[in-house]
From TrEMBL:
Protein known as: Probable succinyl-diaminopimelate desuccinylase
GO molecular function: hydrolase activity; metal ion binding
SUPFAM superfamilies: Bacterial exopeptidase dimerisation domain, Zn-dependent exopeptidases
Tree of life domain: Eukaryota
Coiled-coil ranges per UniProt: none
Family: Belongs to the peptidase M20A family.
Lineage start: Eukaryota, Metazoa, Porifera, Demospongiae, Heteroscleromorpha
Originating organism: Geodia barretti
Pfam families in the cross-refs: Peptidase_M20 (PF01546)
Protein's UniProt keywords contain Iron: no
Annotated PROSITE patterns: ARGE_DAPE_CPG2_1
Length: 374
């Protein structure tokens, strides 16, 4: 088995291959509007399946609905049990105004060391790193004690009901692993003295509609509306709130807060459209220790400190934690790559090429450190 530095050197030598894979994934417009039919994740899964098949790695595509594919791949270990899961998602958010982009949003244009395109950062960059890690494990004949799962889910951008939520309900055996790495963290934050990397924990989301009449819309942002022309007095008004909750705050807590705020106001009612129960994983674990160790080796840096973080968004990690999987958000971005340039969900979304390389090294090193036969 090559040592880690030899493997990291292989990643450096394969930069063109890493870039080509990222560009191919971004060029598939797997846009998820939240309204069926949407998503078109199956073509992304097919590209990833064919990429893995080129090195003899078997995978399967599980569709929760037509064209809503979820990819599962596995490298087996001696034990017959998986020890680690790589998670990502294949859908992307819509492009609001293509005219404001520097380059066409699905062109995957390379410019100034970055790949521009919708999904380049969220989340096809991470998928690229994970696919490359599996390829290198297989090509180098690295024998594993415990197996490695790669799971790329659909529908993350609109709640995961056709992706990891569906997999957790219908195929929990496909996700059975004690540890998992997903999107949502591993980006640098700068202080005067040092660079810090974040492990990311995601909190919950709950669209709430306050109304006097009308159906609850499927919105994920705060807005209001009353209808009618501007100089008329509306008979009703509707306010849709995107409520973000912390890990200890459940639906009962949200209802209690709403009841207190609305007490004494006549004619107001509310409904909770969808509740994503927030959760988190402990910071200290075998996985966090391995991530710290491997990141230092992959980056050859001694100036990085680690801090846990909680996000005000949500990821598919909330579906795997109840299955008993310690799940962290960690993408392995390069510490000198400014995360503000990613423009995740925004105009001119992009991914730094050096972050693709560092992320691939870290995913590869993590699998070797935690799973390889010693």
């Amino acid at each position: 088995m090559p040592d880690l530095q030899e493997l990291f050197a292989q990643v450096d030598s394969m930069q063109d291959e890493v870039i080509a894979l990222e560009r191919a994934l971004v060029q598939i417009p797997s846009v998820n509007t939240g309204f069926m039919p949407t998503g078109d994740e199956t073509p992304v899964c097919e590209l990833a399946r064919d990429f893995l098949a080129g090195d003899g790695i078997d995978s399967e595509i599980l569709e929760s609905a037509p064209n809503r594919g979820n990819l599962i791949a596995r490298l087996e270990g001696r034990s017959g049990q998986a020890g680690l899961m790589f998670m990502s998602h294949t859908d992307v958010v819509p492009v609001e105004d293509e005219s404001k982009w520097r380059f066409p949003p699905f062109s995957a244009t390379i410019h100034e060391g970055r790949i521009f395109g919708r999904g380049a950062s969220d989340c096809k960059g991470l998928l690229t790193c994970q696919l490359m890690a599996l390829r290198l494990l297989k090509r180098n004949g690295i024998e594993l004690e415990d197996g490695l799962i790669l799971a790329a889910g659909a529908d993350e951008e609109h709640g995961g009901r056709y992706g990891f939520g569906w997999l957790a309900d219908n195929h929990p055996d496909k996700l059975a692993a004690p540890y998992a790495v997903n999107e949502g963290g591993g980006t640098p934050a700068f202080t005067r003295q040092c660079r810090r990397h974040h492990f990311r924990h995601r909190v919950g989301q709950s669209p709430v509609c306050l109304n006097a009449a009308g159906a609850v819309p499927h919105d994920s942002y705060t807005n209001h509306g009353s209808g009618g022309i501007k100089n008329s007095v509306p008979e009703s008004i509707r306010l849709t709130c995107d409520v973000r909750t912390l890990p200890h705050q459940d639906e009962q807590y949200v209802r209690q807060q709403l009841d207190e705020v609305l007490e004494g106001i006549e004619g107001v009612s509310y409904e909770i459209d969808y509740m994503a129960r927030p959760n988190s994983s402990p910071f200290e674990s075998e996985l966090s220790s391995s991530l710290r160790r491997i990141t230092a080796q992959a980056l050859d840096r001694g100036d990085i400190q680690w801090v846990p973080a909680i996000s005000n968004g949500f990821t598919d990690s909330r579906f795997t934690r109840p299955l008993g999987t310690v799940t962290y958000g960690f993408t392995g971005s390069h510490p000198d790559d400014d995360p503000m340039l990613n423009f995740t969900h925004g105009t001119n979304e992009s991914m730094g090429i050096r972050s693709l390389i560092s992320g691939t090294k870290i995913m590869l090193g993590l699998a070797c450190d935690m799973l390889a036969v010693k």
